[in-house]
Design a protein that fits this description.
CATH topology of the largest domain: FAD/NAD(P)-binding domain
Largest sheet: 5 strands, parallel
Structural class: alpha/beta
Number of helices: 9
Shape: elongated
Radius of gyration: 27 Å
Bound molecules: iron/sulfur cluster
Order of helices and strands: HEEEEEEHEHEHEEEEEEHEHEHEEHEH
Distance between the termini: 66 Å
């Protein structure tokens, strides 16, 4: 509400960006409804979704829930018919995470399971709560929730990726799990089964946006920052930043920290009246360029593109450098097989002359 009513913030929902041009400090975006607006920076915060389980009888048996559904029922104070307040609750971890399709850890599911287990045990101490896990990853201060769950008598049983639990039963559910240390199968009767579902990216949406912004995705389908330690909220392309689940699975407090960092990085651009381009940037020799596009493909900063441009009395396609984006890395100069690019101050003649003097 504070955002939508802020006089300096315009919120556009239910639409998509269909075209984007420009560079840091001078972007122009067009929306699906035809509206256009100018902006100096972009922060990608498109989020991610929750894995929709197809396993463990979810959607088939009414007492198989996800952790989010369980939390919603606990929050409304629903009675025994709607929430697991009696009998035995069995939670299954890593549903839709750390498998072939989604090889990463979703980072929030262990904490969510342990906190829901604690809430159940604190309100209904006689309810039996079991958590079937591969590894408990309640990292940082979340460890306290894990310790609290153990103190309250929550039962933790490990399973391996090779032998995941099985859920069967019509009225009362049955969960079969092989405990790897015992090497034996345990058969646990359950009144409720709760699935700790993971976080999944919108692969198609992220791919389309990544193509529009000319920024990379990682193998999991999340947006990839320029450098995990040195530029954790930047893309290689100047003026574009990332925050939250768009960048990968993380908790709410981590998303907020990352959003603050991205906003701070964006302010370093927005506070300036003018941006100074590098002096050592790539320069094009139009008469030599054959518009092969190799430079465009290899430039890590999306600073060069083959476009229709004035040439002689007419027009033709050849490479064009955006000085505000070029970092002078020289990759395009080395890659151009037509010798159509030079780096200002580092032309072949200049470099050879320097070498000759050594
Ligand atoms: S690689 Fe060289 S020839 Fe090919 S488009 Fe770029 S500048 Fe032109
Ligand atoms: S010098 Fe580097 S940053 Fe500049 S256009 Fe060439 S490849 Fe891109």
């Amino acid at each position: 509400e504070r955002v939508s009513q802020h006089p300096l913030i315009t919120v556009r929902t239910g639409t998509t960006v269909t075209a984007l041009k420009g560079f840091v400090g001078n972007f122009t975006a067009r929306l699906a409804d035809g509206a256009e607006f100018q902006h100096g920076v972009i922060i990608v915060a498109t989020g991610a979704g929750e894995y929709q389980p197809r396993e463990f009888r979810y959607g088939v048996h009414p007492r198989v829930l996800t952790q989010r559904e369980l939390a919603a029922r606990l929050a409304t104070g629903a009675g025994e018919a709607a929430a697991p307040v009696a009998g035995r609750v069995v939670m299954i971890q890593c549903v839709g995470s750390r498998n072939a399709e989604h090889p990463y850890c979703s980072r929030v599911c262990c904490t969510r399971a342990v906190r829901n287990a604690v809430r159940i045990k604190e309100r209904w101490p006689d309810t039996d709560v079991w958590i079937l896990y591969r590894d408990i990853r309640t990292y940082g201060l979340r460890e306290r929730d894990y310790q609290r769950a153990r103190e309250l008598g929550v039962v933790f049983v490990r399973f391996t990726a090779e032998r995941p639990p099985e859920v069967t039963g019509e009225d009362r559910l049955q969960v079969r799990v092989v405990e790897p240390l015992l090497g034996q199968e345990l058969v646990v009767a359950a009144d409720w089964v709760v699935l700790s579902t993971g976080i999944v990216p919108d692969r198609a949406g992220n791919a389309a946006l990544a193509q529009l912004l000319k920024v990379p995705l990682n193998d999991d389908g999340f947006f990839l920052e320029a450098h995990a330690k040195l530029r954790p909220v930047d893309f290689a392309t100047e003026g574009i930043y990332v925050a939250g689940l768009a960048h990968g699975a993380k908790s709410m407090d981590e998303s907020v920290s990352q959003a603050l960092a991205a906003a701070a990085r964006a302010c370093t651009v927005l506070e300036k009246k003018a941006l100074t381009a590098q002096s050592a940037i790539a320069e094009v020799w139009p008469e030599r360029c054959v518009a092969c596009g190799v430079c465009e493909a290899i430039c890590p900063y999306s600073a060069i593109a083959v476009e229709w441009q004035p040439y002689g009395r007419g027009q033709r396609r050849y490479a064009k450098v955006t000085p505000a984006l070029c970092k002078g890395c020289g990759a395009c100069v080395a890659g151009c097989r037509s010798g159509a690019l030079d780096l200002a101050g580092f032309t072949d003649q200049q470099v050879l002359a320097e070498v000759g003097e050594l």
